[in-house]
Amino acid sequence: MSDLRRDPITDRWIIVATDAPKTPADFERETHVRDRGTCPFCPGNEGMTPPEIAAVRPDGAAPNTSGWSLRIIPNKFPALRIEGGFDRTGDGIYDLMNGVGAHEVIIETPDHAKDLADLTEAEIEQVLWAYQRRSLDLRGDRRLRYLLIFKNYGETAGASLVHAHSQLIALPIVPKRVNEELRRADEYFEFRERCVFCDLIRQELEDRDRVVFETPEFLCFAPFASRFPFELWIMPKTHAADFGQIAQAQIRDLARMMRMTLRQVKRTLHDPSYNFLVHTSPVFDHIREEYHWHIEMMPRLTRVAGFEWGSGFYINPTPPEEAARILRQSSAS
């Protein structure tokens, strides 16, 4: 019989199939075509992108030329634009405003053949530094309320270019999903005077059934109410609401954790498409200290269909305990 499990962070219920759970061999394998063609993110093609916002250039090369190890550019087709004002208006019961915000692309490596999972710890650390620096810079714009850092890997996950990159979108409103987490965190803190995420970490460390990797600063685990097979969360053990305030030692440790996790997912699940997102406190006059920043990673092994869209329930064919066991076992082999 399947389990109905409640997510303690969002109060969402998940259906977890416990009879005959699916293993990595049961999911359809993808092929990621890395034909270089004319890739705008490759060195030598800098003129095909908007002028760079920032770059890491070990040899001191001129901006918008080759010789970089990481490059940050505006998205050529942005979801939101930094120029202009909101111009909030109403049309009967409908509200609308201008699409003000920012949309940036972090090109993670000059090597077209590599993805984030293939990079060294030092190279991943460089990517994380870019996330933090752009996050801190954009929060100076008082129009922006939330900074979403995310990566789409593979066509199924929504990536339109195969060259390794991630994105940052600065929003003038706080996303609904984050507001749900904030409300739950506030309610939990008011009732128990503790962080719900910190309690979740303590529970996972005590049970250990869903833990995949642990480092001095971070925990990687399959959440109890996983929406997707092999969904993983990476969370700092020390309470912190804001990703932008991460310390240098933590970034180094997070780079190690990200490399282990990404390589394990790529190896065990046969290089699936995936999304990961950095969930952090909104940009307000003060940080929401009841919150706890974290990274959510979702391999795209199944498709969301009519039942999920119609009910709001997710059906997960692989219990998180089994997913964590498979990933741990593969790591040890």
Mean pLDDT over all positions: 91
* Overall 3D form: globular
Order of helices and strands: EEEEEEEHEEHHEEEHEEHEH
CATH architect. name? 2-Layer Sandwich
Tell me the CATH superfamily.
Answer: HIT-like
Number of domains: 1
Walk me through the structure.
With 333 residues, this protein is of the alpha+beta class. The chain has a single domain (3-332), classed as HIT-like (HIT family, subunit A), CATH 3.30.428. Helices cover 26% and strands 21% of the residues. It has helices spanning 121-138, 176-192, 196-207, 248-268, 306-311, 320-332, and strands at residues 3-6, 13-16, 54-56, 70-74, 89-91, 94-96, 102-107, 146-153, 165-171, 211-214, 218-221, 232-236, 274-279, 294-299, 314-316. The strands form three sheets. The protein has a ten-stranded antiparallel sheet, sandwiched between helices. It has a three-stranded mixed sheet with strand order 1-2-15. A hairpin with a 6-residue loop joins β1 (3-6) and β2 (13-16). α1 crosses α4 (248-268) and α4 crosses α6. The longest helix has 21 residues, at 248-268. 37% of the residues are buried. The mean pLDDT is 91.
Topology:
Blueprint: E1 3-6, E2 13-16, E3 54-56, E4 70-74, E5 89-91, E6 94-96, E7 102-107, H1 121-138, E8 146-153, E9 165-171, H2 176-192, H3 196-207, E10 211-214, E11 218-221, E12 232-236, H4 248-268, E13 274-279, E14 294-299, H5 306-311, E15 314-316, H6 320-332
Parallel strand pairs: 2-15
Antiparallel strand pairs: 1-2, 3-4, 4-7, 5-6, 7-9, 8-9, 8-13, 10-11, 11-12, 12-14, 13-14
